[in-house]
Amino acid sequence: MVTIRDVAKKAGVSVTTVSRVLNNSDHPVNTETRAKIEAAIKELGYYPNAWARHLITGRTSIIGLMVPDITNPYYYGIARGAEAAAHELGYATIMGNTDRVAKKAYRYLELLREKRVEGIIIAGGGSINLPPQLFVDKSGPTKIVLIGRHGVNFPSIRVDNVKAAREATDYLLRLGHQRIAIITGMQTSTTSIDRLEGYRKALEEAGINPRPEYVVEGDFTAKSGYEGANRLLSLSDPPTAIVTVNDLEGLGAVRGCLDRGLRVPDDVSIVGFDRIEMLDYSYIRLTSVDIPTYEIGRAAVQMVVDLLHEKNVKTPFYLPTKLVLGESCGPPP
Amino acid sequence: MVTIRDVAKKAGVSVTTVSRVLNNSDHPVNTETRAKIEAAIKELGYYPNAWARHLITGRTSIIGLMVPDITNPYYYGIARGAEAAAHELGYATIMGNTDRVAKKAYRYLELLREKRVEGIIIAGGGSINLPPQLFVDKSGPTKIVLIGRHGVNFPSIRVDNVKAAREATDYLLRLGHQRIAIITGMQTSTTSIDRLEGYRKALEEAGINPRPEYVVEGDFTAKSGYEGANRLLSLSDPPTAIVTVNDLEGLGAVRGCLDRGLRVPDDVSIVGFDRIEMLDYSYIRLTSVDIPTYEIGRAAVQMVVDLLHEKNVKTPFYLPTKLVLGESCGPPP
DNA sequence: TTGTATGCGTTATCAC
DNA sequence: GTGATAACGCATACAA
């Protein structure tokens, strides 16, 4: 490996001078000297060692991002936004998929600590117990930002899932639906819990008694949406509308209806969450609540950086959601 | 920050001894001493600084991963597999989205160099010019593995896109189609180029003259599939089957047919690539060529690690593809 | 405008 | 079994 000393030797100067041009120090450096050094750097293909630098400055310019599964549109949206913002602000991101397994989350947290990341963003932590190590060092140099509601007191970026689900359900009610079901996410997911609550509130306000058999548990996958719809539609008194907690479930539910010979939206209305990009070109454009995942990711990084700069941050910081109409909802048959 | 010295002081031993227990050194350490040290570590919440360690060992246990866009199923599949394998092998991954912008790719490469990553995996590089910096240091300590065909001589993981596209096209031919069109990716994408070649080969072998108006350029998005299908279906002599270069395009094309009042597969047959998971629950299950993205990501990391261990690797390393039948293909009308 | 010396937190070498 | 110390590559305080 070529070091700053090699550059200094080649340029015939001291390492200090090299360091000064490397860091655009305001300490004056002779133009010729600078040119010589830059030439040496280029010629040797020298890249400063970020870690030797870190040892002195204390900074790593790394932000850690923990998500359950990058394959899920909600999380890849967040990851994309976080990565973009981090890059713009001069940070690299180390990403870890926890698979919602506490042990993996612990392991990652340990890894991020050892790597001295400046901030850690945790998304989807609501569905696992957060590692206790997180709490020992709350006022330490590593800034922690959570995405979503976790019931613990860390700075966080959120959307109002209760309100969003209530609006979605309200929309179905206004279309005239009375028998509205919901396919949830895992019971441990705060996102799912909140959306379920919104659904219930809307029904209650409309004077409709929520039926327990209209609540089936899913897991945010298309498969669970498919199976959930099948369960619901085989009830003796099946729903005419189904709220799902994300678009994958929603699309799965659409397919479930189709396979039972039911049409969407003629026989069954369906709404989803996330407004994944692909939706605009799916066979039936799902009516869906837009969750600004990209912006959430960006905001989380921005919050980490603000915290590092000791700025005051507004937390929890809420981003807006919006019901976007597609083709999957209509009046009840 | 708590350092190894703090631990040593607290345990009443030297840093050397602490270091020994930290690294499970085979140098003997008294059981009681070890216990005291472990207690101190836990009590202080000490995590060794990976970078101070790196300065001595030379290792960072980081692998860099460059992808155009994590939002694309092909790439998030790869990212997922790479991350999982890296985690198992004790590596963290720094991921960068290049947006297919050379400047961003350059910037990331620089960043990865400064961060002294042990390996760099580049996916989708076929669609941009690879940064020249890559080539100055080919025999350096950083191992580089490419995913896909790039026309440059680096170890790589690939699938045979020519063969895969030929098989897909052959399937349509066997169904009786004569007028088969293709919606490609960007002209610079080697993946797209190879799939186009496979398509052409299949037609030629069947004695069919490929018509230039049956080749429309897309960009791997659902939108471009939608628009491409519209272009094709408005021809005076429209195709009865369309090959697309990924599932997003394929689903977009399905929707394009629908919006023109054409049915799939009754009026138009469509095949895609990637076999994204959601497909099983889409309204029309797309017939699609399975690309083992997860395994590709895993294999790339494994190759990096093998190279680091000076093992011989078989390169290019090919992974198999497989045409999986769905509901989107049938005989021509 | 340039250079010397110190130290960041750790591992490795050597001595005890 | 244990410990003192040099070295890793760099930035910084201080000196010239």
Number of strand segments of chain A: 12
Contiguous runs where pLDDT drops below 50 for at least 5 residues of chain A: none
Largest sheet of chain A: 6 strands, parallel
Q: What's the gyration radius of chain A in Å?
A: 26 Å
Order of helices and strands of chain A: HHHHEHEHEHEEHEHEHEHEEHEE
Chain pair sharing the greatest interface: A-B, 60 and 60 residues
- Report the structural category of chain A: alpha/beta
Kindly report the name of the CATH homologous superfamily of the largest domain in chain A: Response regulator
Mean pLDDT of chain A: 94
3D shape of chain A: elongated
Oligomer: homodimer
Number of individual domains of chain A: 3
The first-level CATH class of the largest domain in chain A is given as: Alpha Beta
Distance separating the two termini of chain A: 72 Å
The CATH architecture classification of the largest domain in chain A is 3-Layer(aba) Sandwich
CATH topology of the largest domain in chain A: Rossmann fold
Task: Provide the descriptors you would attach to this structure in a database record.
homodimer; 333 residues; alpha/beta; 434 Repressor (Amino-terminal Domain); Rossmann fold; 3 domains; six-stranded parallel beta sheet; six-stranded mixed beta sheet; 12 strands; 16% strand; DNA-binding
Task: Give structural notes.
The structure is a homodimer of 333-residue chains. Chain A is an alpha/beta fold and 333 residues long. Chain A has twelve helices and twelve strands. In chain A, α1 crosses α3. The longest helix of chain A has 16 residues, at 73-88. Chain A starts with a helix and ends in a 9-residue tail after the last strand. The mean pLDDT of chain A is 94. Chains A and B meet through α4, α5, β2, α6 and α10 of A and α4, α5, β2, α6 and α10 of B. The structure holds a DNA duplex (16 and 16 nucleotides).
